[in-house]
Amino acid sequence: MKFSDETLTAYLEGRLDEAEARAIESAVEADPELEQRLMALDPFAPVVQSVFARVPAETPAVELPERAAVAPVRPAGGGLRLLAVAASVAVVAVSATYWAMRPKPLGWAAQAAIYQSLYTPDTIASLDSSPQALDAQFAMAEEQLGRSLNRAALEALPGGELKRAQILSFKGKPLVQVVFADDQGQPFAFCVIRQGEGAPTRELKQAVLSGLATATWAQDGYGYMLIGARDQTDLAGQLDILTTSFPG
């Protein structure tokens, strides 16, 4: 099946129905040339590629502890038993060192901040922010989340122009990123993730992640995050609206 650039662009913007979207996804899996066409039309492809370019090709070397001096032993079972014991000790030492030194997995907020830190004004300048495109994007995002995104409140955020709502995923949970441009064209974002029933409530917490000012909170099975354009961005005015519309 052949797809026009217009159809592929509509897929990227979330304007196709579920059957049409699945047809494109199935075709992409079997056709590398179609995948390249799709990436060429996607303004976010360079962002994703630059993320993976930062992943090291090799795992870091692990420095093992020095072996303690042991007096020679002649066990009744012979040399093979001694070798088996030594091998077991070595395996335990390597395993303990690995688990002690392994990097801690990043949470959804930290990864969202890393992703957002790669954005530049050029990343969002050419996005289709027409009412029709935003209508389709918000409809799909709200369907995935299972809740309203209070679009009217988002459009009322001070100093922000609504640019896009896109659906991401973290460990199989839908994560929606709503992107804005501030008065200088710098990108900032509001993210919502569906964490599910039983997820803990979290009070508002502000921090700097990946060089960007952030605020996170959670309630009723959803997590929320505001990501500023810079590390010193004042989030107070926007949080006044968001924490009322999305209480935490």
Please tell me about this protein's structure.
This protein has 248 residues and is α+β, with helices and mostly antiparallel strands. Helices cover 44% and strands 20% of the residues. It has a six-stranded antiparallel sheet. Helix 2 (18-30) packs across helix 3. The chain is globular and about 50 Å long.
What are the defining features of this structure?
248 residues; six-stranded antiparallel sheet; alpha+beta; single chain; 6 strands
Question: What is the compact description of this entry?
Answer:
By secondary structure, the chain is of the alpha+beta class.
| Residue-averaged pLDDT | 81
Order of helices and strands: HHHHHHHHHEEEEEEH
**Computed CA radius of gyration, to the nearest angstrom:** 25 Å
Number of helices: 10
Question: How widely separated are the two ends?
Answer: 47 Å
Strand order of the largest sheet: 1-2-3-6-5-4
Beta-strand content: 15-25%
Largest sheet: 6 strands, antiparallel
The number of distinct β-strands equals 6
Q: Unreliable segments (pLDDT under 50, ≥5 consecutive)?
A: 70-92
Q: Report helical residue fraction.
A: 40-55%
Alpha-beta classification = alpha+beta
Shape assignment? globular
How are the SSEs ordered, and which strands pair?
Elements: H1 5-12, H2 18-30, H3 32-41, H4 45-53, H5 79-101, H6 108-117, H7 121-125, H8 131-145, H9 151-155, E1 161-170, E2 173-181, E3 187-194, E4 202-209, E5 212-219, E6 222-227, H10 236-245
Antiparallel strand pairs: 1-2, 2-3, 3-6, 4-5, 5-6
Helix pairs in contact: 2-3
